[in-house]
Design goal:
Elements: E1 2-9, H1 13-24, E2 29-32, E3 48-49, H2 61-77, E4 82-90, H3 98-110, E5 121-124, E6 140-149, H4 151-164, E7 168-170, E8 173-181, E9 184-191, E10 196-206, H5 212-219, E11 228-239, E12 247-251, E13 257-263, E14 267-271, E15 275-276, H6 288-301, E16 313-322, E17 336-341, E18 347-352, H7 358-369, H8 396-406, H9 412-422, H10 426-430, E19 442-444, E20 447-448, H11 449-459, H12 464-470, H13 482-496, E21 510-511
Parallel strand pairs: 1-2, 1-10, 2-7, 4-12, 10-18
Antiparallel strand pairs: 1-21, 3-6, 4-6, 5-6, 8-9, 9-10, 11-14, 11-15, 11-16, 12-13, 13-14, 17-18, 19-20
């Protein structure tokens, strides 16, 4: 039976981040996730790396400062999947006064040091490109900076980094039982095929997100020291409503905000809602009234009017927010709490959090656990790129231009997608290929076997959903039968190469 220093339960952003940090400090790590990486909350965000401008209204200055600091760190760590985005806020005279917004933006600009992103400014819509799609009633507005992220890929990159530091990553593997046995945890894992495996761990991290409380009570048989509040956030995707690179943040009469963001070149992403949720976190979906709400709020600002029939795609996620007894879902804190149970073998539970602060959360979690495991190695992740992010000067545009010179045979749109998805791992994906034919068969339009093999072998992709929805957003661009075609290819690939496993198990776990 293998003994690990640390077992992490949960393959969302917090679990993957903790696994990366711990493995990089020399701890032997096992991460288990009952579904795919980022299968739930971490692939259903608004996909922003942001300080949270609206949190200033709730006096969450510490959280905003921490998030703004992390925004700069992450932009440098993964420039291929995280990039700057300018946000336009139309001024609605019936809402917050102009002086108040200017004060908020001044704070937002100065709460943390900025090296990458420009500051805020006031604009006239008659002179700014973002004004054309807006209704004539909106004359002035504000522009500020935040970041955009391919959220599910951020999780995968953290898992890859953990594996490259020796961690064992098990997807579609549930922790079905765990108990303290002397100085260790004895954990029973159940794989997708029903087979069970027992492992020991010197410490356990409960990073199960929406399931953090149920894992404590049902699997670990422990009381929960904190409560979470499940809040559903839903988004809609429509044909693009504007043709410029700016995103919008809209203030609504109900005091809530929504974003309208350029998405996948051809679309606009609109969201999010904030709805209390009491069902199964794994079965969340958008409701008709949420679709209507998002369409109405979009129509309040844009000349191009939309309705439910214009919605091409939707997604919903459940955010497990730390319950601070706020009166409404929008005002619940996005901060986190790390709860350590050291009455025997240590167990740390993660309550709350947001994607922007995941690296800091992971660092703090490992800082608390490492001394209990006899590990005194320092923090290390702040200045280290994620896989594919090791580009000169963290400049994805310059790297793309250089790649076009090196690989002139790759169509420009395909190369751009590869660089914006895989960064410098482009070289692993294409290998020694010097033509499209050498990338293998074109299984779907512009989807070649080389990319699919890479996703299976290096990124734990096992199904069409893993590839078309989480590792990419290709489903939006492909024909309706794409999932069936891809699942057929995956079945044949696994049958032809049954020994294929993503990132070999190089863990330094001890055998007992």
């Amino acid at each position: 039976m293998k003994l690990y220093d640390l077992m992490v339960i949960g393959g969302g952003i917090n679990g993957a981040g903790i696994a990366r940090d711990a493995a990089g400090r020399g701890l032997s790590v096992l991460l288990c996730e009952k579904d795919d990486l980022a299968a739930h909350t971490s692939s259903a965000s608004t996909k922003l790396i942001h300080g949270g401008l609206r949190y200033l209204e709730y006096y969450e200055f510490g959280l905003v400062r921490k998030a703004l600091q992390e925004r700069e760190v992450l932009l440098k760590a993964a420039p291929h999947i995280i990039w700057p985005l300018r946000f336009v806020m139309p001024h609605d005279k019936a809402q917050r006064p102009e002086w108040m917004i200017r004060c908020g933006l001044f704070l937002y600009d100065h709460l943390a040091k900025r090296e990458v992103l420009p500051g805020s400014e006031t604009i006239s819509f008659a002179k700014h490109p973002s004004g054309a799609p807006l209704k004539a009633a909106f004359k002035r507005g504000f522009v500020y900076s935040d970041g955009w992220v391919q959220d599910a890929r951020l999780v995968v990159l953290n898992a890859m980094a953990a594996a490259e530091h020796g961690a064992r990553i098990l997807t579609r593997t549930a922790c079905v039982a765990a108990r303290r046995e002397g100085e260790h945890w004895l954990c029973t894992l159940q794989h997708e095929d029903g087979q069970q495996e027992q492992v020991q761990a010197r410490a356990v991290v409960n990073a199960a997100g929406p399931w953090v409380e149920s894992l404590l009570k049902d699997t670990l048989q422990l009381p929960s020291p904190k409560s979470i509040r499940l809040v559903k956030g839903s988004h809609i995707v429509v044909k693009k409503l504007f043709d410029h690179p700016y995103a919008y943040i809209f203030q609504n009469p109900d005091k809530r905000i929504i974003f309208a963001i350029p998405y996948e070149n051809d679309f606009t992403l609109i969201g999010t809602t904030d709805v209390e949720y009491h069902g199964d976190p794994g079965a969340v979906s958008i409701a008709a009234d949420e679709v209507d709400y998002l369409c109405r709020m979009s129509n309040r600002y844009f000349n191009s009017q939309i309705g439910p029939d214009d919605v091409l795609s939707t997604y919903s996620g459940v955010r497990p927010l730390l319950d601070d007894e706020a009166s409404n879902a929008s005002s619940v804190t996005r901060d986190y709490s790390l709860e350590l149970d050291a009455a025997g073998a240590p167990m740390l539970s993660v309550f709350g959090g947001k994607i922007t602060t995941y690296r800091k959360l992971a660092e703090e979690a490992v800082d608390r656990l490492a001394p209990l495991l006899g590990n005194g190695k320092p923090t290390w992740t702040a200045g280290v790129p994620l896989p594919g992010g090791d580009m000169p000067n963290a400049d994805a545009s310059a790297y793309l231009a250089a790649s076009q010179l090196r690989h002139p045979w790759l169509p420009a749109a395909l190369l751009q997608r590869y660089v914006k998805t895989y960064g410098t791992r482009l070289h692993t994906l294409i290998g020694s290929a010097r033509s499209l034919a050498e990338l293998g068969a074109e299984i779907l339009p512009s989807v070649y076997e080389a990319e699919l093999r890479y996703l299976v072998d290096q990124e734990w992709a096992l199904s069409a959903d893993d590839i078309l929805w989480r590792r990419s957003k290709l489903r939006l661009h492909l024909p309706a039968n794409a999932s069936a075609v891809l699942d057929g290819w995956l079945a044949q690939y696994r049958k032809a190469a049954p020994s294929v496993r993503p990132v070999p198990d190089t863990t330094s776990a001890q055998s007992h």
